[in-house]
Amino acid sequence: YTMRKYIDKQIQEAISLRKTHKYSFKTLAKITGIPANTIRGWCKDEVMGTRWDTLLISNERKRQDHKDSEKMAVNRIKSIDKNLAKVLAALIYWCEGTKYPSENRVTFINSDPKLSKLFLELLRKAFPIDESRLRVHLQIHDTHKFGDIREYWSKLLSIPESQFIKPTITKPNGGKHRTNYLGTCSIRYTNFKVQLKLIGIYEEFANRFLKD
To answer: What is the distance between the alpha carbons of residues 112 and 95, in angstroms, rounded to a whole number?
Structure first.
């Protein structure tokens, strides 16, 4: 009689991890402490999907690990005070906002709902905003229901629907539809002083860190 080295629970846990998460045998060995070849033998009669499935999931997991690896840089920021909000808003605005003198108001244009909301919340924290002077213009496809899209952006940005102006409606290029596309949102704030302040903050930030 030879004593089994691994109990049924260990075997089933290893097989379950392989099935559920598509971990490679090398990764499973690190997780469980059981040799990769041993786990490979346990899994040989199990339906696990194709090798390609495993590779895709493994690669996606690696990409996620890279994305997660530097999140502590954000976690070390305990709070965003008014000065930091001004700098962050200015950096985002310089990338995606209109510049003076082509426009003499704050106009931020983007199709990413999260980025649009982030900019507006930073702007609100950085400056005393007169909410009644905010306007939103949407560019949407003719396949969208404007009422539904307007309601979505209104709730997201905390701007009343009454402050949305007439949208621009277009046809998708080539008949293609972008997945989860909710239109391009233009946030407008009719205050050229705030626009110039954002530009000035960006220029000062860039000059400070680009000194020879």
So the answer is: 13
How many Å apart are CA 59 and CA 112, to the nearest integer? Answer: 25
Q: Residue 114 contacts by C-beta under 8 Å, 6 or more apart in sequence? A: none
Ramachandran angles phi, psi of 27, nearest 5°: -70, -40
How is residue 186 written in tokens?
A: 């233009």
185, 153 in Cβ contact below 8 A? yes
Q: What is the pLDDT of residues 65-90, one digit of tens each?
A: 888 888 888 888 889 999 999 999 99
Kindly report the pTM of this predicted structure: 0.72
**For residue 171, is it left (φ>0), alpha (ψ between -120 and 50) or beta?**
beta
Contacts 24+ apart (CB under 8 A), 153-157: 153/113, 153/182, 153/183, 153/185, 156/113, 156/116, 156/117, 157/116, 157/117, 157/120, 157/185, 157/187
**Residues facing residue 65 across a β-bridge:** none
Q: What is the pLDDT of residues 116-133, one digit of tens each?
A: 999 999 999 999 999 999
Sorted by sequence, the CB contacts under 8 Å of residue 8 that are 6+ apart come out as: none
Tens digit of pLDDT for each residue in 158-185? 999 999 999 999 987 765 556 688 999 9
